[in-house]
TrEMBL record:
Family of the protein in this entry: Belongs to the cation transport ATPase (P-type) (TC 3.A.3) family. Type IV subfamily.
Pfam families in the cross-refs: Cation_ATPase, PhoLip_ATPase_C, PhoLip_ATPase_N
Gene Ontology biological process terms, A to Z: phospholipid translocation
Keyword Calcium in record: no
Catalytic activity reported: ATP + H2O + phospholipidSide 1 = ADP + phosphate + phospholipidSide 2
Primary location: membrane
A GO molecular function held by the record: magnesium ion binding
Binding site for ATP: 430, 464, 505, 528, 563, 643-645, 747, 753, 776-777
Name of the protein this chain belongs to: Phospholipid-transporting ATPase
Lineage per the UniProt record: Eukaryota, Viridiplantae, Streptophyta, Embryophyta, Tracheophyta
Length: 1072
């Protein structure tokens, strides 16, 4: 049988970015980026428990008033919306900066722009965000009302009556009908099934569509609340987020019964294939596990955005420099003309209009310097692009839209589209957990006229389902499963086995066991688990031949890449059973230390086993996995496999997936102590360095750049990692791993997977991506910079915890090599363009301030200054950031090396930033000086030349953008030329309003030929140098992307398929 998984269910990808910048601060691998364990995995004391009295909500809430069942997912109320929304928005430092600017402009001494105009940009941004937030919160309010007013059947005065969900209390008994949703977290008491089983669909909680089984205790199955009084006490843990864990006990009729995850029904789940279920409410409203998990995904910031913040700081320093130059020059100018200040315009100290001279518009030399500096900040404020933040959010939304609609990322088998989940709110369990592997038979064809009934097995693990089907094929058919017994048809004979106890799987024991009362009146313990954990508890003096044969079979199965399990059995005599039973009952009903007590009881009974044999399940690779791995490696992405499988299985699958090759030198580390782990790491480092020297090529990250010549693969097991992680040996492991082409970690626990990701994430600036498909991958996915979940047969926990989700592993190739490349190129260019666009405008204002003796008067109207980043130039950069494509999908997939442009930071780096600023400086000089000299001898006023500068800058920056567009569409044409036309219209309207300064200015200046000649001269003078430099660079020193674009442009598709492009080294500098 096979259970299809993508690539071992998990793989961590490490994108190299040039330098291995090791940080000085030491980090533990399990450090606190994520919450790894819920309260259910910890021990709880009496003070942490809550008491719930069955059918007595008054007494239940007497000591502590538990939360009602009303929920509220909305963030605001009518009265709190404005202050809370503004407080949330002003967490962005840029918004505080512009608020300070707007406040300063309200002071009479600093007023440069009109008071209303200065507030408008910030008010516009805040208003747009507030409207969006208000609409989203209105939808939440509406959803809350619908949810809270749903009806449920609640036991009132010995009969079930309908009650609104919001009025349900802890302690009340509820009756849920088939296909209804559970309104709160409920402990199951009885069901319509005589065995007390209930089938539950948890798709709304964890995304899994397969049915789960929940059981009522045998002592409460037969009780009918309408006919007899139900009394009892449930002592359970306090509310927590872990949807896979529950610790409690219930006292009924003098008996103390243990309760666990299989006895609780969670809010949001649906009852399926069961007519009704009755239970008692233990958690309501905001205390339910679903509501405790309804929080956003962990906040993750891209390296591009982090780098952008650094450049923003540089622009802030540059802004400070400009303001300082203006204020210092103004101080020098005032000092040289201190004797003329009484009569000079703008600075005259005396007002002679009312007889006796009075001081007028002058505050002394010191204050004038301070005021000049602050006024300069106001005038040059758009040097910091406030619109960039909104533009980036809109571009991300647009990019996500096209990624979701990409049919090449659509999986027909699972009928699932690509999902962008980052930042979404969902009911996702953040801490994972181990579920009990239980298989339940369901009758799927129960026609009355046919003696044949078809059975289907429902289970939480595809491996368990595969084993059940295989057993049925050999004549051992599971026909019934309850909490108290199982029935098996053995070669046509029905036999019943009583389930006396179950020890669930845990990562410490790595096995699980069940104690059964057999038809022959004997009691036997059956144990299954990993080979390493099973052979340690098997009596090797018994069945020696079978043990040797099983070990040989396991070796063969592992070399074939199969998942293996070992099974053992032991018969318990009466005294052993009694001893176990007393310890098990005490441990399973304990609230304090339950997990540790159960683990101890299990270890005591799981020993001296007789081997039964082993099973092997094919972990079938998804289609296209080997090809995907090859493409990713060709793209310069380092692949690390983190799996729980045994070493032989992991190695076999490594070869079948082309992760490992025959040309690689394998370094295997299997150590049982810290000292031996140290020796193994040191020896491996020596070996890897010798191989690197032999290759003769190294690069500055420490990893071999000659992977094709002498590649190294590191294979290390979980036992070794126990001694290495969170110790000083981490540094040795990191140094060794970065010298290897492939790292394969086998037999690793979920927390070790997160630790390996943290090993890279906390020590380099490399971007880490983790991809997995199971609950054991959740911590790894959340630890990585980018987490990808695969929706497969292992369930949906990985998907619910991920930033992105998809149906097939092979989709990772177009996701990274196509959409990742496009989005990086677009976003990098958009950030640089926004810096350029605002800086060229500010520098034109700066030159005018210098020309007018540092008076800080502006020829450009205040309204044009405010509308520049909002209307005049905002839309084109957003559209280009969403739609532009420098290369086709076909080319990017054919040449994975083109992904190296992102590794080398070709779209956004310090060199590009400074070159852009130099170009900006030249363009601003051209914009300012050409009209100045053209109109030097004319009588044109400042407002007219200011309109000319405004139009020139808008035309210039849009043509600058047009020069860099790779793929034109009608939308691109519309926004670029439309923005220029919109600017002409806005300037015309502003100048047509009599109350504004510069009334009718555009009409005077635009009617002359000189005006249009100036616009043409500005564009030519500003852009021709840039065009020439760009042409020379692309002609004499083209990059990989430019070569590929030329190949696309001048060759037919057939020729392009046969074209070979020599690319730069992935991690090296481009050829110059």
């Amino acid at each position: 049988m096979d259970s299809q998984n993508p690539f071992e269910g998990e793989i961590s990808l490490n994108r190299r970015k040039g330098e291995n910048s090791v940080r000085e601060v030491r980090h533990g691998s399990r450090g606190g980026d994520i919450e790894l364990l819920g309260l259910s995995h910890k021990e709880i004391g009496d003070d942490d428990a809550r008491l719930v009295y069955l059918n007595d909500p008054v007494k239940s809430n007497e000591r502590y008033e538990f939360a009602g069942n009303s929920i509220r997912t909305s963030k605001y109320s009518v009265f709190s919306f404005l202050p809370r929304n503004l407080f949330r928005q002003f967490h962005r430092v840029a918004y505080i900066y512009f608020l300070i600017i707007a406040v300063l402009n309200q002071l009479p001494q600093l007023a440069v722009f009109g008071r209303g105009a200065s507030i408008m940009p910030l008010a516009f941004v805040l208003s747009v965000t507030a409207v969006k937030d208000a609409y989203e919160d209105w939808r939440r309010h509406r959803s809350d009302r619908v949810e809270n007013n749903r009806l449920a059947w609640v036991l009132v005065d010995d009969e079930f009556q309908q009650k609104k969900w919001k009025d349900i209390q802890v302690g009340e008994i509820l009756k849920i009908q088939a296909n209804e949703t559970f309104p709160c977290d409920i402990v199951l008491l009885s069901t319509s099934e005589p065995t007390g089983v209930a089938f539950v669909q948890t798709v709304n909680l964890d995304g899994e569509s397969n049915l789960k089984t929940r059981y009522a205790k045998q002592e409460t199955i037969s009780k009918i609340p309408e006919e007899e009084m139900i009394n009892g006490l449930i002592k359970c843990e306090r509310p927590n987020r872990n949807i896979y864990g529950f610790q409690a006990n219930m006292e009924v009729e003098g008996k103390r019964l243990s309760l666990g995850p299989s006895n609780i029904l969670l809010r949001g789940c649906e009852l399926k294939n069961t007519a009704w279920a009755i239970g008692v409410a233990v958690y309501c409203g905001r205390e339910t596990k679903a509501m405790l998990n309804s929080s956003g995904a962990p906040s993750k910031r891209s390296h591009l955005e982090t780098r952008m913040n650094f450049e923003t700081i540089i622009l802030s320093l540059f802004l400070t420099l400009l303001c300082s130059i203006v204020s210092v020059c103004a101080a020098v100018w005032l000092r040289h003309r201190k004797d003329e200040l009484d009569i000079l315009p703008f600075y005259r100290r005396k007002d002679f209009a009312h007889g006796a001279p009075q001081n007028f518009n002058y505050y002394g030399w010191g204050l004038e310097i301070i005021f000049t500096f602050l006024m300069s900040v106001i005038v040059f404020q758009i040097m910091i692009p406030i619109s960039l933040y909104i533009s980036m959010e809109l571009v991300r939304v647009g990019q996500a839209y096209f990624m979701i609609r990409d049919m090449l990322l659509y999986d027909e088998e699972s009928n699932s589209r690509f999902q962008c989940r980052s930042g979404w709110e969902d009911f996702a369990a953040k801490d994972g957990g181990e579920a009990c592997n239980t298989i339940v038979p369901l009758v799927v064809d129960d026609t009355s006229d046919s003696p044949v009934k078809l059975l289907d097995y429902q289970g939480e693990s595809p491996d368990e389902q595969a084993l059940a089907y295989a057993a049925a094929a050999y004549g051992f058919m599971l026909t019934e499963r309850t909490s108290g017994h199982i029935a098996i048809n053995i070669q046509g004979e029905r036999q019943r086995f009583n389930v006396l106890g179950l020890h669930e799987f845990d990562s410490d024991r790595k096995r699980m066991s069940v104690i059964l009362g057999c038809p022959d009146k004997t009691v036997k313990v059956f144990v299954k688990g990993a080979d390493t954990s099973m052979f340690s508890v098997i009596d090797r003096s018994l069945n020696t031949n079978i043990i040797h044969a099983t070990e040989a079979h396991l070796q063969t199965y592992s070399s074939m890449g199969l998942r293996t399990l070992v099974f053992g059995i032991r018969e318990l005599n009466n005294s052993e059973f009694e001893q176990w039973h007393l310890a098990f009952e005490a441990a399973s009903t304990a609230i304090i230390g339950r997990a540790a007590l159960l683990r101890k009881v299990a270890n005591n009974v799981e020993n001296s086993l007789t081997i039964l044999g082993a099973s092997a399940i094919e972990d079938k690779l998804q289609q296209g996995v080997p090809e995907a791995i090859e493409s990713l490696r060709t793209a310069g992405i380092k692949a690390w496999v983190l799996t729980g499988d045994k070493q032989e299985t992991a190695i076999s699958i490594g070869y079948s997936s082309k992760l490992l090759t025959s040309k690689m030198t394998s370094i295997i580390i299997n150590s049982n102590s810290k000292q031996s782990s140290r020796r193994s790491l040191e020896d491996a480092l020596v070996t890897s360095k010798k191989l690197t020297i032999t290759s003769g090529i190294t690069h500055n990250t420490g990893a071999s750049d000659a992977a094709a010549v002498n590649p190294v693969a590191l294979i290390i097991d979980g036992t070794s990692l126990v001694h290495i992680l969170d110790s000083e040996l981490e540094e040795l492991l990191f140094e060794l791993a970065t010298k290897c082409s492939v790292v394969l970690c086998c037999r690793v626990a979920p927390l070790q997977k997160a630790g390996i990701v943290a090993l890279v994430k906390n020590r380099t600036r490399d971007m880490t991506l983790a991809i997995g498909d199971g609950a054991n991958d959740v911590s790894m996915i959340q630890m990585a910079d980018v987490g990808v979940g695969i929706s497969g047969r292992e369930g949906q926990q990985a998907v619910m915890a991920s930033d992105f989700a998809m149906g097939q592993f092979r989709f990772l190739v177009p996701l990274l090599l196509v959409h990742g490349h496009w989005n990086y190129q677009r976003m990098g260019y958009m950030i640089l363009y926004n810096f350029y666009r605002n800086a060229v405008f500010v520098l034109v204002l700066f030159w005018y301030v210098i020309f007018t003796s540092f008076t800080l008067t502006t020829a450009i109207t205040e309204w044009s200054s405010m509308l520049y980043s909002i209307i005049y130039t905002a839309l084109p950069t957003i559209v280009v950031g969403i739609l532009d494509k420098d290369l086709s999908r076909r080319t990017l997939l054919k040449y994975p090396q083109l992904y190296g442009a992102g590794h080398r930071q070709e779209a956004y780096n310090s060199k590009l930033f400074w070159l852009t600023m130099i170009d900006t400086l030249w363009q601003s000089v051209a914009v300012f000086s050409i009209p100045l000299f053209a109109y030097w001898a004319s009588s044109i006023d400042g407002s007219s030349i200011g309109d000319l500068w405004t139009l020139a800058v808008v035309i210039l920056v849009n043509l600058h953008l047009a020069m860099d567009i790779s793929r034109w569409s009608w939308i691109t044409h519309a926004v670029i030329w439309g923005s220029i036309i919109a600017t002409f219209i806005c300037v015309t309207i502003i100048d047509a309003v009599p109350i504004f300064s510069g009334y009718w200015a555009i009409f005077h200046v635009a009617k002359t030929e000189l005006f249009w000649l100036c616009l043409l001269a500005i564009v030519l003078a500003a852009l021709i140098p840039r065009y020439v430099v760009k042409f020379l660079y692309q002609y004499y020193s083209p990059c990989d992307i430019q070569i590929a674009r030329e190949a696309e442009k001048f060759r037919s598709p057939r020729e392009l398929r046969n074209t070979k492009i020599e690319t730069n080294p992935i991690l090296g500098s481009p050829h110059r």
